[in-house]
Write a structure and sequence with these properties.
Layout lengths: L8 H7 L10 H10 L5 E4 L1 E3 L2 E4 L1 H9 L5 E4 L7 H10 L1
Length: 91
């Protein structure tokens, strides 16, 4: 993972990996899915108190690069409800 925030710490412990120098390519995820016989995966935006950790635009890019293997789930900052609704409609 490239995120150094506290919210990502448990995920780094769970995966046994530290911070990555660069993001993992989508093709690596797709290859791991194929090896495990997983047809479809979910990529979700992730918003924390300081803003997006994984933005909706990043999720859209992951989905576009996945050859149809990933589906996207939009997210929004719920502390800003009007902007959240606009963002969800945009996505």
């Amino acid at each position: 993972m490239t995120h150094s925030d506290e919210m990502s710490e448990s995920l780094r412990r769970w995966t046994g990996q530290g911070l990555l120098e660069e993001p993992l390519p989508v093709k690596a995820t797709v290859a791991a899915m194929a090896a495990a016989d997983v047809e479809i995966g979910l990529s979700a935006a992730w918003y924390g108190p300081q803003g997006p950790l994984i933005s909706n635009d990043e999720v859209a890019e992951f989905v576009a690069q996945s050859d149809g293997r990933l589906r996207g789930a939009a997210g929004a900052d719920l502390t800003r409800p009007v902007q959240a609704v606009r963002e969800l409609r945009r996505c």
